[in-house]
Design a protein that fits this description.
Blueprint (H helix, E strand, L loop, with lengths): L24 H12 L2 E6 L2 E6 L2 H7 L5 E3 L4 H4 L1 H4 L12 H9 L5 H5 L2 H16 L5 E4 H18 L12 H15 L5 H32 L7 H7 L11 H15 L1 H15 L1 H14 L14 H14 L4 E6 L7 E3 L4 E3 L5 E4 H4 L19 H5 L19 H18 E5 L8 E2 L5 E2 L3 E6 L3
Parallel strand pairs: 2-8
Antiparallel strand pairs: 1-2, 3-5, 4-12, 5-8, 6-7, 9-12, 10-11
C-alpha cells in the first residue's frame, strides 16, 4: 500500500490558494516543506501540484529516462517577454535545440574564461566606487550587485556598457522584477482578473525588457565590432544540424533571457555577505587563502582553481539560499500511471506536475549534518565530491539545466573574491535577520551594509 501524500486542508473551490502567498510563493512553499517534509501537495484552482523536498526523491525525479522539465505556470506566462527561448521552450519545440546548438559554444568553460578580465574589471569598478563613498557609506547589497550583474552580462554577452553602476538604476532591472513577479502571480488568479486589472502593467514590463534587448542589438549594428561574443553568434551563426539561423525576434528573445537567468547570481553573493558577517572566522579564513594565492599580484583566471575555500563559500551559500529556488518536472509522455516514487511508497498520476523545492533538498538531514549551519568546509575537497549529485542541483538538471551555469559560477567567484580582497563590510543594522522574497530567484530583503576600504 502506498502512503497518501500529505496536503494542507483547503477551502471549497479555491483549494489551497490561501496557503500560498502569491507575493512570496517560494517562502510559502518553504513553510509547507517545514511542516509536511519530503513530499506534499496542494490544489490551486482545481489543479494538484506535488512538491518534493529531499535528496532521494530529487534524485529520482532527475532521472531523464522517466521525467523531463515541465514548462507551465509562470514559465508559460513569461513567454510574453521571451517567446520560445532556451528557458521557456516546450519540450516539443524544435527551436530549443536550434538555439542551444548555436549559443551553447559561447557558454562552455573555455568560452566563458575569455570574459574573465571583463568580469574582474567591472567588479573592481564597483568596489572602487564603494571605496570612494567614504567609511560610513551604506548600500543595499542586492541593489548594488543587481547593477553589477546586469552591467557584466550586457558587456560580456552583448558588447555594450550601460554605465549602470552609478546613477539611476537601469530600467531593465525594474522591468525584470515586475515582469517575473507578475508571471509568478498570474497562474493563481482567474484569467479575467489578470486581463482586467494586471495586464497593462505586465505588458509594460515586457515591452521594457524587449526594449533593452533591441537597444543592445541596435547598438551593435551602429557600432560594428570585431568581438566574437554571444551577440555576434546570435546575429551570424547557423545551427550545425539544420542550417537555421536566428531572426531578429529570436535574437531579442534570447537577449532578454540571459539577464533574467543571471539574476540569481547577485542573490547568491549578497546572501554570502550576510552569512560571512554572521561567521567572521570564515572571512578570516577566506582572506588568508586569497592573500596567499593572489597577494599583491593581479587577479587572474588561473587563481580561481587555487581558491577552494572561497569556492566552498559560494557552494554553501547556494545550498542555504537556493537562489534559483526550484524547477518543474513531469513524467515523460506516454508514461502509464500511476507513477511510483520512493520504491512505491508514494503514487502520483501519469501526468502529474511536480516541483522540486531546493530549500528542502538542500537541508536534507540525511545528507547534511546541522543543515541550517553555514559551514563552507563541507563544500571543499572530498567532502564536496562525495555529496550525492541530487544534493548539487543548484543549476537545474540534465539537458535543460541552466545553459549559463559556467558564466554564473565564474561571476560568483570573481565577485566574492573581489569583495573580500578590496573592502570591509559591516551590518548597517546589527540586529538584522535574513529575510527573502523573489520570483524566479530568491533575494535578501532590507539587507543594507556599510562598506569601506579593507583594512590591511
Amino acid at each position: 500500500m502506498s502512503t497518501p501524500i500529505p496536503k494542507p486542508p483547503g477551502v471549497p473551490l479555491l483549494g489551497n490558494i490561501t496557503d500560498v502567498d502569491p507575493s512570496n510563493t517560494w517562502i510559502s512553499l518553504q513553510k509547507l516543506w517545514e511542516k509536511y517534509g519530503e513530499i506534499f501537495k496542494i490544489t490551486v484552482l482545481g489543479q494538484d501540484i506535488v512538491f518534493v523536498g529531499n535528496v532521494a526523491l530529487c534524485e529520482e525525479l532527475c532521472d531523464e529516462k522517466r521525467f523531463r522539465k515541465f514548462v507551465g505556470g509562470p514559465i508559460v506566462e513569461i513567454r510574453k517577454a521571451v517567446n520560445a527561448s532556451l528557458f521557456t521552450a516546450f519540450a516539443d519545440e524544435p527551436i530549443w535545440g536550434v538555439h542551444h546548438r548555436i549559443l551553447g559554444p559561447q557558454l562552455t568553460p573555455t568560452a566563458v574564461e575569455e570574459h574573465f578580465t571583463e568580469v574582474r574589471d567591472i567588479a573592481a569598478e564597483l568596489t572602487a566606487k564603494w571605496r570612494g563613498m567614504g567609511n560610513n557609506a551604506t548600500i543595499s547589497a542586492i541593489g548594488e550587485l543587481n547593477r553589477l550583474d546586469l552591467e557584466t552580462t550586457t558587456f560580456c554577452f552583448f558588447g555594450r556598457r550601460l554605465n549602470g553602476l552609478t546613477g539611476p538604476e537601469p530600467a531593465m532591472i525594474k522591468a525584470m522584477d515586475g515582469g517575473t513577479g507578475e508571471a509568478m502571480k498570474r497562474p493563481t488568479r482567474p484569467k479575467v482578473l489578470n486581463w482586467l486589472v494586471y495586464q497593462s502593467r505586465f505588458d509594460k514590463d515586457c515591452r521594457a525588457m524587449r526594449q533593452y534587448a533591441l537597444e543592445c542589438l541596435e547598438y551593435r549594428r551602429s557600432h560594428p565590432s570585431d568581438r566574437r561574443d554571444m551577440l555576434y553568434t546570435m546575429m551570424n551563426a547557423k545551427d550545425p544540424d539544420t542550417g537555421k539561423s536566428m531572426n531578429e525576434q529570436q535574437i531579442i528573445d534570447e537577449i532578454v533571457t540571459m539577464p533574467i537567468g543571471s539574476s540569481t547570481a547577485p542573490c547568491v553573493i549578497s546572501c554570502a555577505i550576510y552569512y560571512l558577517l554572521q561567521n567572521p572566522t570564515c572571512i578570516t579564513k577566506a582572506r588568508k587563502e586569497i592573500d596567499s594565492v593572489i597577494g599583491r599580484y593581479e587577479f587572474m583566471h588561473e587563481h580561481l582553481d587555487a581558491l577552494p575555500y572561497c569556492a566552498g563559500i559560494v557552494h554553501e551559500t547556494m545550498r542555504l539560499t537556493a537562489a534559483a529556488p526550484g524547477f518543474n518536472i513531469e513524467p515523460l509522455p506516454g508514461t502509464q500511471g500511476p507513477i511510483l516514487l520512493a520504491g512505491g511508497k508514494y503514487q502520483v498520476p501519469a501526468k502529474q506536475t511536480m516541483i522540486i523545492v531546493l530549500h528542502g533538498v538542500n537541508r536534507d538531514p540525511a545528507v547534511f549534518e546541522r543543515p541550517e549551519a553555514f559551514r563552507p568546509d563541507r563544500m571543499v575537497g572530498e567532502a564536496f565530491d562525495e555529496l550525492p549529485a541530487a544534493a548539487k542541483k543548484w543549476f537545474g538538471n540534465g539537458k535543460r539545466a541552466c545553459i549559463g551555469r559556467h558564466h554564473a559560477w565564474m561571476w560568483n567567484m570573481i565577485t566574492l573574491v573581489t569583495l573580500l580582497k578590496d573592502v570591509d563590510f559591516e551590518m548597517a543594522d546589527p540586529g538584522y535577520v535574513l529575510q527573502r522574497d523573489g520570483w524566479f530567484n530568491l533575494r535578501p530583503v532590507g539587507f543594507d551594509v556599510k562598506v569601506k576600504e579593507r583594512a590591511k
